Amino acid sequence: VGIVPTENKPRILLMGLRRSGKSSIQKVVFHKMSPNETLFLESTNKIVKDDISNSSFVQFQIWDFPGQIDFFDPTFDSEMIFGGTGALIFVIDAQDDYMEALAKLHMTVTRAYKVNPDIKFEVFIHKVDGLSDDHKIETQRDIHQRANDDLADAGLENLHLSFYLTSIYDHSIFEAFSKVVQKLIPQLPILENLLNILISNSGIEKAFLFDVVSKIYIATDSSPVDMQSYELCCDMLDVVIDISCIYGMGEDPEANPFDKESSSLIKLNNATVLYLREVNKYLALVCILREDSFEKQGIIDYNFHCFRQAIQEVFEVRTKATTQQHGAAAM
Ligand code: GDP
Fold first, then answer.
1. 272: which strand partners?
2. In terms of C-beta density within 10 A (0-12 exposed, 13-18 middle, 19 or more buried), how is residue 194 classed?
3. How far apart are CA 236 and CA 223, in angstroms?
4. Residue 120 pairs with which residues in a beta bridge?
5. What is the pLDDT of residue 38?
6. Mind listing the pLDDT tens digit for each residue in 210-227?
7. How far, in Å, from the CA of 38 to the mean position of ligand 1?
8. Angstrom distances, CA of residue 173 to CA of 23, 162, 250, 282, 301
9. pLDDT at site 2
10. Which residue has the CA at smallest separation from atom 12 of ligand 1?
11. What pTM, to 2 d.p., does this model score?
């Protein structure tokens, strides 16, 4: 993947009231902080640009806004902030009274939509670890209804919000981020198609293409995702990265412990196999398959080789297209 100018990167904004959990989400997903450590995070009171594009395939910036920012302050440059934004994530604390958050959500999305109607609006109903299953569903229904009623009252039926139940104490935050990021990847249909071809020709049951650093899956085949499979694959990725970092460093301390040769196989006691292969500097493929399908490992490896080749080509085209676009803009 070539160097893409910052201006062309899809940008994700993370917004919400103070203490809703924005910094925690960012730390847990992109900086491997453990959820318990977030208890000691200092509250955000400035716009934080967190550029993770050097370590992650997912090229975006997170702008963490303080909860009390005033849109009507003339120094708040909404053209600049919303203009280049791909997705706006609004975090609502579900353990707290959310009426103020809903008012803020409404104000934020209407303002952003005016500047840039192409923004994807994503609402994270967050901290749901403290809620019972019934309460979760009821909260989501209530927030969904109120937010949409407000938009309808304002005549904004074309503005669509998506809702996710999230918590940093389980995998839901990674799953939600995966869905948000996938909407911003123009090559997604191609990636899904490649994964479908790979699994159907290799006897694989489920395959995820992971961004290694964040554990966001940027694509999966079209069979339905169940949380348990995703969690299993996330856990495997953690194990492999930990082992690689401890034992894979070698002589050169700058060397990437996760490289072309990285692969791993875990056999579970229910006749299931987890198989991980490195795809490129940022991406890994993690598959779930039956033990007897893995007897034909030669075929799987051959198919994987073709898959890796195809992925390379997909992203080379992207880099060229971006360069051309940039060249044209410079003329
Ligand atoms: P910010 O001001 O929006 O950046 O909020 P913080 O990230 O500082 O989070 C405020 C508090 O919420 C911290 O004490 C976090 O530990 C807590 N928190 C964040 N996410 C979750 C979550 O998913 N579940 C629970 N129970 N607490 C959370």
1. 290
2. buried
3. 20
4. 87
5. 85
6. 998 889 999 999 999 998
7. 7
8. 13, 14, 34, 20, 32
9. 39
10. 21
11. 0.86
What is the position in ligand 1's atom list of the atom closest to the CA of 20?
3
Per-residue pLDDT reduced to its tens digit, 163-177? 999 999 999 999 999
pLDDT classification of 245: cutoffs 50, 70, 90: confident
The secondary structure element, H or E, covering residue 138 is helix 133-153
Closest CA to 89 of 59, 65, 122, 115: 122
Buried b (16+ CB within 10 A) or exposed e, 16-52: bbebbbbbbbbbbbbeebeeeebeeeeebeeebebeb
pLDDT of 228 over the 60 cut: yes
Average pLDDT over the chain, rounded to an integer? 85
Distance CA 295, CA 215 (A): 28
> In this structure, is the dihedral angle defined by the CA atoms of residues 318, 116, 142 and 123, taken in order, positive or negative?
positive
Whether the Cβ atoms of residue 147 and residue 92 lie closer than 8 Å to each other: no
Q: How far apart are CA 308 and CA 306, in angstroms?
A: 5
Determine which residue's CA is closest to atom 27 belonging to ligand 1. 127
Ligand 1, residues at Cβ distance < 6 Å: 16, 18-24, 38-39, 41, 43-44, 126-127, 129-130, 167-169
Quick one: what percent of the chain has pLDDT higher than 70?
Answer: 79
**H/E segment holding residue 179:** helix 172-183
**How far is the centre of ligand 1, averaged over its atoms, from the C-alpha of 285 (Å)?**
31
In whole angstroms, what is the distance from residue 1 CA to residue 113 CA?
31
Query: Which residues, at least 6 apart from 6, have a Cβ–Cβ distance to it below 8 Å?
Result: 51, 53, 61
Of all residues in the chain, the percent with pLDDT exceeding 90 is 55
User: What spacing in Å lies between the alpha carbon of 48 and ligand 1's midpoint?
Assistant: 16
The secondary structure of 196-244 as a DSSP string is: HHHHHHHTEEEEEEEETTTTEEEEE-SSPP-HHHHHHHHHHHHHHHHHH
| Cα 50 to Cα 65: distance, rounded to the nearest angstrom | 12
Residue type, 56: S
Q: Taking the mean position of all CA atoms in its chain, how far away is CA 1?
A: 18
Q: Say if CB 101 and CB 16 are below 8 A apart.
A: yes
Separation of CA 94 and ligand 1 centre (Å): 11
